[in-house]
Amino acid sequence: MATIMQGPAPSGEAAKAPRPVFEIEGLHIDYTTELGVLHAVRDVSITVHEHESFGLVGESGSGKSTLAMGSIRYLASNGKVTDGSVRLNGQELLGLPAKQLRELWGSSIGVVYQSPLSALNPSIVIGKQLAEVARQHLGMDASAAKARVVEMLTKVAMPDPEAVMKRYPHQLSGGMLQRCVIAMALMTDPSLLIMDEPTTALDVTTQAVVLDLVAELKREFESAILYITHDLGVITKICDRVGVMYAGEFMEQADLRGLFARPLHPYTLDLLGCVPHFDPTPEKRSLVTIPGAIPRVDELPPGCIFAPRCEFVEEACTIARPPLEEVADEHLSACRRWRIVPPPAEYLREATAALRTAGASAEQGGVLVEAKDTEVHFKAPKGVIRAVDGVDLEVRVGETLGVVGESGSGKTTVARAIIGLTPATGGDIKLRGSSLARTTGKRPRSTLREIQMVFQNPDASLNPTRSVGDAIMRPLTLLSGVSREEAKRRAQDLLRSVSLPVSYFDRLPHELSGGEKQRVAIARAFAAEPELILCDEPISSLDVSVQGSLMNLLMQLQVDKQTSYLFISHDLSAVQHLSDTIAVVYLGHVMEIGDAVQVLTLPFHPYTEALLSAVPLPDPDVKQKPIRLGGSVPSAMHVPTGCRFHPRCPRFLGDVCVNEEPPWREGQGDHRIYCHIPLDELSRLQTGTLVFSGAEPAAGSIDYGEDDR
Amino acid sequence: MVEPNLTDESFDTAIMDETMAKEVLGPDGGRARPATWRLYWRRLRKRPAALVGTIIFCVFLFLAVFGPWVAPYDYQKQNAELRLAKPALTHPFGNDQFGRDIFSRIIVGTRNIFLIGGLGTLIAVIIGTAIGLLAGYIGGTGDEVIMRLLDVLLSFPSLLLALVLLAAAGPSNRNVVLVVAVLYIPMVARVVRSMVLDLKNKEFVEAARVRGEGRGYILFREILPNALPPLLVEASMRFSYSIFLVASLGYLGLGVQPPSPDWGLQINEAKNFVQIAPWVMLFPAAIIALLVISTSLMSDGLRQVMLPGGGRN
Amino acid sequence: MSRFILRRLGFMVLTVLLASVVIFWATTVLPGDVASQTLGRFATEQAKQELRHKLGLDKPVTTQYTTWLSNYVRGDWGDSPSMATKVRPVVFERLRNSLMLALVAFAMYVPLGIFLGLIAALRKNTWPDNLISVGSLAFIGLPEFVSGTFLIAIFAIELQWLPSQSSIDPGSSFAEAFPYLILPGITVALTSLAYVVRMTRSSTVDVLQMDYVRTANLKGLPPRRVLFTHVLRNSLLPTVTVVAIGIGWLIGGLIITESLFDYPGIGRLLLFAIERRDLVLIQATALLIVIIYVVANLVADVLYAVLNPRIRYT
What we know:
The complex is a heterotrimer. Chain B is mostly helical. Chain B has helices at about 20-25, 35-45, 50-70, 100-140, 140-155, 160-170, 175-200, 205-210, 215-250, 265-270, 280-305. Chain B is elongated and about 75 Å long. Chain C has a single domain (about 90-305), classed as MetI-like (MetI-like fold). In chain C, strand 1 (about 80) and strand 2 form a beta hairpin. Classes of the chains: A alpha/beta, B mainly alpha, C mainly alpha.
């Protein structure tokens, strides 16, 4: 059962401990590859003090991982530090003999990795892997090491450490594994802790628990932390100072509040604008897009490397590369024109446009697709997997239904049942009133034309042996029944509509980037002019800036063609940005459903509340009450009785939750919550869960009231 | 041992992992790349061993086709006075116990091996691919049954099965081809099946289902083209093993019958003269070795060049 | 876990049964009328009938099969016409010889193969690796009669260090047989060596790229410990499988080598039986070899499952 913990205050406490622990100065790292020598990291300088956490933010190709690993001299055999200095506690790392470096790695530096399952040896029990560190560097014998391991596991809030120590990695969940890795990293009380995207692979609610843990450990241990991520929201939870990297260089460095309140580099400003603003209003705005693409490090422009994509560019910007200099108090920027970079709120208003209003077509359109009591059960040797267990959904014409849930929620399976890839085993799915056959094989072509899908993985969505043009033309010739010439013409139009050059027509998928491939997938989905497009996490695997432009594309196409979307994601921000209606799913059942504004305002289903308080928002001033879920998602083979959320519910009432299924409580309009607690009681309990404070709330946003009671 | 290389400030500990590679090279694509075949060729050029193997293989291929016209002497012609003659300028590989020119016999024998091995491999590839496609696509019990049946054939050491079957059916060219085919069908089927299983769940195949494509279309237009590179590599490897097998059978006297210039047979016949005229045995042996090795190198090169992760192993 | 083993065992039995059908069909049904072939075309019909009756060939095929199989299982492997003795003792004696040869070969190629494979992986893309990789690729397809031929030519004929023929006497002890086992042992070991080298190299290269090796290094563990505790434990697993299967082949599959060196092992026995069209002997020997091979595969599978924690625990 979860308790409502007294969580740490979000970031802040930029303890300016006087002692610098980790100093990087003028670092250059090169890679030698087939394409020649690549200058992956150029002239980079950072200082991190004890108790301080430095956030390293960047998209792909930024060099952030290379910098972090290269600075401690862990590089592949074709990587090389060519210039600069790196000091840990005053000791120079470059030039250090191997044996001493290893010793340093083990005792003074701790590393936490992105994927905890692959970071641990699958053939050795957890206890032994952790004890190794103690025995090697703390000179402990077997029993002392074991005690130390138990001590560390307790510090990371691991239930039953003794049992966990005897397990193999594959027997633990992601959240637990990451805690083990953190325990292992901190075992020697290291001076430097490097965390490389440690929560990217975890569910949002699990991520929140781990972030809380890190924030707490930050206070207890003196380590300097180098935290790498692409997620601006996570940064606000952990970091005191932030550096933004782009194609191997720093664009800006500042303390957390300073960076968010007033960024002084156009790239940072754009990044902030690319991320959906968590602000549920009926008005749907576009996101900031950055034209062009991230350059490869062997194709950098002569002047400022961001110049080709910058909207504040001047002639002088393209001639000489501006250095990273201190332009304000502790605030460094590599932009010559930093003075004219506008404040974020103002910029966001100007650079984005209102595309549509949610619920506008609610009157005209009727219900397009309706799923009632949908069940998808799989037979397994040891029982039944109830992946989808009684789901009711509705998608209206011209609107977007957003389905949000974490792993094990069954959200993807529902979509697959609707489109017929995975047959539903119970319930009924109707398209405009008439029932749909359960598999694609049994549906007529006219029905197939009406529902199409965009998949999650852009690399696998397109047949590698087929050209882009062929991929888009096929649905036209097959489903729309047009001639080849007509299909070709229309395919070219479609390419234009997804902002791809027509010259891509004959290209093969491997010649396109991830974002471009996904655009082709979208064009293909739209080709036969379907009524409904299912989008299964279409943007999750892409860079932040690319995600933004794809979300804009999806919204624009919806406005143009009046198509409905079923948008599935684990990312609540993206879902609230795009959707008219939102359904929150947990373990195969809908917990809350209603239009977007209602779902994201009081009252919430306790699960929704936990999600909202867990989503890291890119705003240092937002206050989120730490509503945390204990344990992990149960297996779909052993669905809890009564309300399936009861083992983890922070608002657990008692026996009624265990024994009886909850009723649907009706709120305003179509808003429904599946809970035993009455709505007004929920409202009372949940006030203060999410508080946007700050100078001027944007028009239409909802002020959630004062701080926690 | 995993020791650091201190001279140039870097550590010889790891190969560039995926994240770092992506980091450095930036987001992939965005620019047109050369046509696939040219890319393959470029990669092949960087691997000298594979390149050499391919070239030598092509030489053998040429001999297989044009052998009888290229050979300096008639392979059947016996010369009593040249019996077991040492290698000389006129007869570079010497002469066998009947005075026949070994060099010519070897050249002509190339066609034999390519035909029998090649034909057997071809049949195995065609039938094996069909079975693999079927089993992989239908899945479930059908797949299980087919695989179990193939497993029975795989439960014999190859040569044993070949011997048993040939002993039963009698040695002849046709039977050797059939035996080669029967032996290799299960292996090809396995490879194809595993490719199909892998591809079946890829999103672009699901996109095809969502479009309402028929089973046949999906198998042959979506799945098969993507299974071709590994299939090609497997076929090439099978061919190199078939040479091994045909030569072995020839050596045991169960393959092609005399006076055919089968390489294995030549070695068998030459066994008796190894003390006085070792070259009669050594040259055919060396040539077999050369062909097998070069075909192996070529197959491995093909694998490295065509399959993603080319450069590993 | 035990369910896994039982399932595998079941499949093994099924496979052997089906294989026995194949063997029986190939030896009894396919060749046609045995009586004619044994007695010649000019023998009287009556003589042929007597022979058929004696050999049990006048009964329906399925009965013949079940009779043969049940006898086999009970240990009655019949009499060999060509050798005029009971089949079983001869087969077992030859089996013993094959085991000796297998042992010698095994001792040669397994440790060396693993060692070379590791070197190649750890020194990847340097000259030792290139040499080992190309070398192993070259040896993989090299037929034994080719390599054996060369070995004989060099060591037995030119240098005269070792005997060129290995026809040892029945009942020889290991020590007596040893000198005769060296050349055939090397011949066999060469091909198997290549497989082990390639498999070890490939899986070690894979493991070296794994994240957990990076973790082990960054924990500051000494390189030796990283290698032995973290790398090998995972990378040798596929090698174990290859070696286990290889043992099966070593015992039953050395037909060519035994023939080349005239070594009285089980493979040579089979060849002999085929030449003499001694069906009883062919059947018994072939089935035994299949059983050995299939058992070796089973052991390989089970070993892998047992050694791999991901399979052992759920």
